[in-house]
Write a structure and sequence with these properties.
By secondary structure, the chain is an all-alpha fold. It has three helices and no strands.
Length: about 90
């Protein structure tokens, strides 16, 4: 039964809503505590992509399509870093 259905059931029966279980809170705490590690990994990936972009750009026979894909991926990683950092600040 989903959490929403349980709340509806409790409201219809006139009882209190269910209290989140400690296991649920533990999963949230683990996820929150893992954010700095994830951000660190993304920063390393961003730096790697930056190096790859520089290397590809310096090649005499560079592939513009590869360069564009690397830049796009680097931007996506940068956006994810920003989103996770905002999540940390908001919590």
């Amino acid at each position: 039964m989903s959490h929403i259905c349980e709340i509806d059931r409790w409201e219809n029966e006139g009882g209190p809503p269910p209290v989140p279980t400690p296991a649920h809170e533990t999963r949230l705490a683990r996820a929150y505590n893992a954010l700095p590690n994830r951000i660190g990994a993304l920063k390393r990936r961003h730096a790697t992509l930056h190096s790859l972009i520089d290397e590809e750009g310096a090649r005499a026979s560079r592939c513009d399509m590869t360069l564009q894909q690397l830049k796009r991926e680097r931007l996506l990683v940068k956006d994810e870093i920003a989103n996770l950092a905002n999540s940390l600040r908001a919590a």
